[in-house]
Amino acid sequence: LAFAPPSSRHSPVLTSLLSHVQGEQGTDSPFVNRRDALTTAAAAGGLLLPGPLGLSLPVMAAEQQQQSGLAKLSDGTAFPLASFGLQVYDDETAYKLTLTALEVGYRNFFASVLARNQRGFARAVRDSGIPRSDLFICGSVVSNRASGFDAAYKATTKGWQQNMNAFAAGNIDYLDQIMLDYPGPDCESIRGQWRAFEEMHEQKLTKTLSVSNFSPEQLDCILKDTSTKVKPVVNQLPFSVAYHPGGAASKTVESNMKRGVLVQAWAPLGYSLGGRFTPKMKAVCAEIGKKYGKSFAQVALRWIVQSGASFTCQSSKKSHFVEDLNIFDFELTPDDMSILDELA
């Protein structure tokens, strides 16, 4: 099993994707999502991509996890800490970069519906010859504009069915994880979204369920619902050395861990929601990296892992793919962590 690429080195964002995805998923009200963040980042010359362990999660020991590159999720699933997130590529580019990622060792993939490249990704998986059982594949559904249980349930069901149709292009007939890209407008809507996911799980089309951009209170809409059968195990959030609400050992990470949920950073090398790396931040990371023979990006990604989170990011360069996988053979000292904690 393996890992992922960096986010502060990306191709231009296709802002028209947002309206396409909205149309495909059949909703009418305005909403805000990750694509808007991408647009903002692109306008600023940036790119997107997005605690202590041992709280309520039955995870591996911190040291074991941080050196193996694997976490054990609250449902017992082995989860690679680093993921290649195919966020801003068309099908052809996604096909080529997925093959490159597989070649250098990546085995965890986040193929978002927002990027409209799930077919290209799936074809690469098929043509790689790598056994499906060796991969961890996550899709996503956008249904946050649907209001009310029934509307949210229907929109989310349509969304996961579209995922399976797209992945079928590469003979992928089940997912390791499906992600709810944004929460609905209220608890009742969120529960409708979640019920649709649970039905996908019941049909054995996905092994685990996850969310993105959920607050603790929005997670509780699911976790405190007595009818919930399958709990979320991952919450994808903006999280980096440049952006970590709550300070050291981020409260964001801790509040998710207490709910049995692992944070996956979707902005691991900054940009987007307030997380752009300043020259000073890069310089500090680079200086710390000198004693380990590591780059600023490797130090920044290592900080995420040692903070108790995982990450998904991307690149178009093979050298960066390799670089980002090579973070599990060193450990930042408590002093290093403290310095990095204080940068944001």
SSE order: HHHEEEHEHEHEHEHEHEHHEHH
Strand content: 5-15%
Task: Give me the count of strands.
Answer: 10
Largest sheet: 8 strands, parallel, barrel
Low-confidence stretches: 1-60
Q: Going across the major beta sheet, what is the strand order?
A: 3-4-5-6-7-8-9-10
Radius of gyration: 18 Å
What does this 3D model show about the protein?
Strand 6, helix 7 and strand 7 (206-212) form a beta-alpha-beta unit. The chain has helices at residues 17-25, 34-43, 62-68, 91-104, 118-128, 149-167, 187-202, 216-223, 251-257, 279-290, 296-306, 318-325, 334-341; strands at residues 70-72, 78-80, 82-85, 108-110, 136-141, 175-180, 206-212, 234-237, 262-265, 310-313. It is of the alpha/beta class and 344 residues long. The protein is globular, with a radius of gyration of 18 Å. Residues 1-60 have low confidence and may be disordered.
